[in-house]
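Student: Please help interpret what follows.
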Amino acid sequence: MSRKICFTGGGTAGHVFPGISVIEALCSQYNYKKEDFIWIGSTSGMEKKLIDEAGIQFRGILSGKLRRYFSWQNFVDIFKIILGIVQAFCILLKVHPEIIFSKGGYVSVPPVLAGKLLGIPVITHESDYTPGLATKINANFSRKILLSVEETRKYLKPKFRDRCVVVGNPVRSQFYNGDPAKGLAFLGFDDKKPLVFVVGGSQGSGEINQLIWEIRKPLAEKYYVAHQVGAHSTIGISDMPDYVQVKFIKDEIADVIAAASLVVTRAGAGSLWELSAVGRAALLIPLRGSGTRGDQVRNALYFKEQNAAAVLMDDTIKSQDLLAEIESIVGTERGRELSVKMAQMAKKDSASAIAYQIVTLIKKD
């Protein structure tokens, strides 16, 4: 009997790192080994690099974007999706895993559909407050639908709600053990001023980058500023010692967040739950507008409703308004309260809860 488990998902680090956390839980608690796992992802996504670094077998397939609006690209992508299903079918037929765990993203749909054709049970997990289109499709073929928060259940069709289990969103164990001293040392800072960490997600954010660039001088007068700009940033290069730019922080990210008094960030689910694990005040600038389904807006509002984060999301945000909001949080009672509430959002056993659901379904099948 095969002991293989197939993971699928990708597009952003937020779809990959939680899955890696679940794999770590399966290895530590149920005696699985890394060679027992295979990850099916996109041939063009960032997941291949992350999965390879984690020591897990990766297989790439074509994946088309699932758009809810008219685009000529839809006609091309539908063929990519069909070919992706064929590729996934061939991979799964050869490996024949005991179960497929979907972490979401467009690339997860072909393996889930192929798994259904092969009779392989599927579990899908949704990180966001509102389910994405991939999750809504995958829900039709999933034995269990795992949610980060209870409120997400109401956004699914009634026939799916009995299959839902609230497990939180898993984060890497390192986030519960962040070392502020190591974070400051990595950035080249001491502890004489508070640290403001700015990050626009794993791929950066043009909006946040430009806003921070415009107020970098007054920020750096009061605080140390660490700015993750992304690999394709077009803003200027750092021109002052207390304002440091980095392309992407991977292994040291938990230490940097632990060192920060405030994190200015988008509102991707992965980033939010990582912040909750560390327990740091956050100022959220969610991705919004016609180019998004609004998932980050709902994520941000949920954390704001829990008094766990501050939010700026006007159509046009002025840099001076951002500066004023940062100053109202760093070193203030408001900032301390946000940190406490953010820490209370954490669900430390999330990866273990998901691992339990996977193993339980394998035993039942």
